[in-house]
Write a structure and sequence with these properties.
The protein is of the alpha/beta class. It has 17 helices and 10 strands.
């Protein structure tokens, strides 16, 4: 080879190597709010030298809009299973290279099998956390207004005559059309994953009949609202409600928060780590995911966010009050009454979005 060409090749090799090293020095992580202990990210940076740029969102719809537009710049995102399912079909995600994940075997094979319904072979995801949607409530406010009515029923938010008694202290529903409508359908005895127009109309009619008693639709602020005593009941994610419970206890202002999984059944969800196909730092993304898969990291997520993790190595390090809390790790009997959410067809989603807008505005 020509010496000049040899020198050029060597220079290119150094350049490529330098670029690879530079790529690994940053990872852009887009996650749900209040969903990871800051120490995990700090320790990851200390251990690897990779800086984490951390942004948060509060709805799957918001995440999807950014990803579908392309060029989001994010390396690791955390969609819920049903959203990942259709995003995989749209080519949004890169396949996970398990050869770069030394801690993958820590995952619970039973949970992996359940998640695979969203992503055959789990090629594009790694489990992050899972949980339920249920009722977060202010124990004293509800007792004052409702007496001894059971707090494990969706009647509290779906029956107008009951919800009206809570209007003054505030009812909050998640601003999440797919999830709330699925729960409403199930409450009505219908298929929670139905895409029939007639069924959607029934769910819409139910929600509109109670709409005047709802203070807001919100997927993140209800945590502080519950903790501060500014709302008395919220249909929300179990970990969020339990975080509110913890904050209220720390504040010592006499706000007593409870959480119940509705006896009518409710949605079980899986949040999954995924790498966008156009992620600029894929190597760093794999390193961050592998770090999260460590038993200590997964346990820290469960202890901080009050959500269950599908990580066997984490269990010995999960706090007893978390592991033994039926609102976080429910019994097999309760699990049997939970349903997963399927991905919706794009056509139905457009109809759902219009319907949801009508529900929120009361039109």
């Amino acid at each position: 080879m020509n010496p000049k060409k040899l020198g050029l090749a060597a220079a290119l090799a150094v350049s490529v190597s330098t670029a690879a090293i530079a790529e690994e020095q940053v990872v852009n992580f887009y996650n749900w709010s209040d969903y990871i202990s800051p120490e995990i990210l700090e320790n990851f940076t200390k251990e690897t030298g990779i800086k984490v740029n951390y942004d948060v969102y509060d709805s799957n719809e918001g995440l999807e809009a950014k990803l579908m537009a392309g060029g989001s710049g994010y390396d690791v995102v955390v969609p819920t299973g049903s959203f990942l399912e259709r995003q995989v079909q749209a080519g949004i995600y890169a396949e996970i290279d398990r050869s770069q994940l030394s801690n993958y075997d820590n995952l619970d094979s039973v949970m992996l099998e359940k998640i695979s319904r969203h992503d055959a072979g789990n090629k594009h995801n790694v489990p992050y956390a899972w949980g339920t949607i249920g009722l977060g409530y202010n124990v004293d406010m509800l007792k004052e207004r409702l007496g001894d009515i059971p707090v494990d029923s969706l009647d509290i938010i779906f029956k107008p005559e009951i919800a009206a008694k809570l209007k003054d202290c505030g009812i909050t529903l998640l601003d999440s059309p797919a999830e709330v409508v699925a729960i409403a359908l199930n409450y009505l005895g219908l298929d929670p994953n139905s895409e029939k127009k007639a069924d959607l109309k029934k769910a819409s009619k139910l929600l509109k009949s109670v709409r005047d008693n709802y203070r807001k639709f919100d997927s993140s602020g209800y945590i502080s609202d519950l903790a501060n005593g500014d709302t008395c009941v919220a249909l929300g994610y179990n970990g969020d409600v339990l975080q509110a419970q913890g904050r209220a206890e720390e504040a010592g202002q006499g706000v007593n928060i409870g959480y119940s999984i509705p006896k009518e059944g409710t949605l079980v969800w899986f949040d999954l780590l995924a790498i966008p196909s156009d992620a600029p730092h894929k190597q760093a993304a794999h390193k961050l995911i592998d770090y999260i898969l460590k038993g200590e990291s997964a346990a820290s997520i469960s202890n901080f966010a009050y959500y269950a993790v599908a990580n066997k190595a984490a269990e010995p390090m999960v706090l007893e009050e978390v592991l033994n809390n039926p609102g976080i790790y429910p019994s097999d009997e309760v699990k049997a009454n939970l349903f997963p959410q399927n991905a919706h067809a794009a056509k139905f989603d457009r109809l759902l979005t219009r319907t949801w807008s009508g529900i929120k505005t009361g039109r």
